[in-house]
Predict the structure.
Amino acid sequence: MFPDGFSNKKLFTGALASVILLGSIFPPVFAAEKGKGPSTKGGVAVVDFQKVIAVSRRGQQAREKLKSEVFKRQREIEGYQQELERLENDYEEKHLSLSGSDWDDYEARFRARVKELRRRGEDVQALLAKRERELTAQLVDELKELTGRYAEEKGYSAVFELNAFPAAYADPKADITAAIIDRYDAEAVKSVP
């Protein structure tokens, strides 16, 4: 069942050593009394940054700002699409009326313009994706700094971001997401002139 030289005894010994090691690294988590949850002194917590960004005032403001930019850029893309439709209609009409070198010149200009409009549309979409990544990175940086201060204040040894390090199990009492949202909102209110 196991590879040569590997036995159930080795598996059991390894598992026991892991539990002992984890118990010595995170004693407040493993030694907590049933129903009381982990002690924050040297304890471990988890936070869900995606939820903080989705629910917090600052996250909502950032989303509204991005939506506004998306709306503006979407109109720009729609303008390109309308011009492409006009060009396609014109192309079909010209195809019937032009011939020879006139048609070749027109078709070359048509293809160059279509290519340019498509590139502009792709550039706008890439710009929006970049802007969203930058905004998210800015919010995550703010949240890391805030979470670090909160962890120091409360005595946590480590705080794991749930989306970066999915936990197989996390006691709901170890989830500080709501506290981070409250603190983030409070700081957002203070920063408004």
User: Anything to note?
Assistant: Residues 62 and 135 are 7 Å apart (CA to CA). The chain has six helices and two strands.
